[in-house]
Amino acid sequence: MSEHERDFVGYGRNPPDPKWPGGARLALNFVLNYEEGSEPSILDGEETTETWFTESSGLNTGVQGRDLAAEGLFEYGSRVGFWRVMRLFQERSMQATIYGCALALERNPEACEAIRASGFDVCSHGWRWIKHYQLSEEQEREHIQKAVESLERTTGIRPQGWYCRYSPSVNTRRLLVEQGGFIYDSDYYGDELPFWTHVGGKPHLVIPYSLTNNDGQFASGVSTGSQWFSFLKDAFDMLYKEGKTQPKMMSIGLHLRLVGHPARAAALERFLDYVSTFSDVWITRRLDIAKHWHSVHPAPAN
Predict the structure, then answer these.
(1) Which end of the chain is more exposed for a tag (fewer CB within 10 A), N or C?
(2) Vertex 184, ends 269 and 24: CA angle to 5°?
């Protein structure tokens, strides 16, 4: 399958056994989206202030110029939310993945230091938290290069994974393969297991992500931590039950300016404590899932 050919069948009724380490029934990956400081901003050349995935989404239609309230809601994520969420994971010795926007991390060296010390892997979330499908091919090529160089400086390791804001362009995957060094991307939402595709005749791994098991629901209807906890628990329980015969993967997306607030963080804490009681669940980094798939399920021939 090429990178743009639509596939409505996938693995079908007989998905492969992922053979997760230790015979785990489920591979569980938490993603901390670090975006604050890279979002569209008048100070960074855009015409408006970004409000998506904040309490002010849809409220700033009358603001002329900079929306200082929205800027503060983003800054909460890097000033407060990041540290609270990191503490929750580290108190439990749990691994997670950082979806890091390069410019955002450049603007918080202390957070970069904490990420380096944590052992979390960093997947490139772009140079900026902007819509790649609005970039020209040359602009996108430049953004990918800048993100790689920046993240290598700030985190000490070249990123091996990639994820755009919401949706890639029709050029993204080809440009990632052209850039080289990426062993997977997560710009896909249509499956619960990794799969191989071919880009320019070369095999390329896709590790699907989720906008469903995601704290973005707080910006689109879910209002309490209890509702979100219940939703995540139901998803986990279903996948765990199915994992007795068909192990899968579960991705959970977190945004520091959303789940970092106390009431929402309390729900995350309850969920972390819940999943930690299962000995046959592999709570792991996204990079480790990619490496496992490369090793155990190598790319098929063209």
Answers:
(1) C
(2) 50
Distance of CA 187 to the CA centre of its chain: 9
Q: Under a CB-based contact definition with an 8 Å cutoff, are residues 115 and 33 in contact? A: no
Class of domain 21-296: alpha beta
CA 132 – CA 126 distance, rounded (Å): 9
DSSP characters for the chain? -BTTS--S-TTTTS------GGG-SEEEEEEEEE-TTTS--GGGT-SS---TTSTTTTT-TT--S--HHHHHHHHHIIIIIHHHHHHHHHHTT---EEEE-HHHHHT-HHHHHHHHHHT-EEEE--SSSS-GGGS-HHHHHHHHHHHHHHHHHHHSS---EE--SS---TTHHHHHHHH---SEE----S-SS-EEEEETTEEEEE----SSSBGGGGGTT--SHHHHHHHHHHHHHHHHHHTTTS-EEEEEEEETTTTTSHHHHHHHHHHHHHHTT-TTEEE--HHHHHHHHHHHSPPPP-
- pTM metric for this prediction: 0.95
Each residue's pLDDT tens digit in the chain (302 positions)?
Answer: 556 689 999 999 999 999 999 999 999 999 999 999 999 999 999 998 988 888 776 666 667 789 899 999 999 999 999 999 999 999 999 999 999 999 999 999 999 999 999 999 999 999 999 999 999 999 999 999 999 999 999 999 999 999 999 999 999 999 999 999 999 999 999 999 999 999 988 999 999 999 999 999 988 778 899 999 999 999 999 999 999 999 999 999 999 999 999 999 999 999 999 999 999 999 999 999 999 999 999 998 76
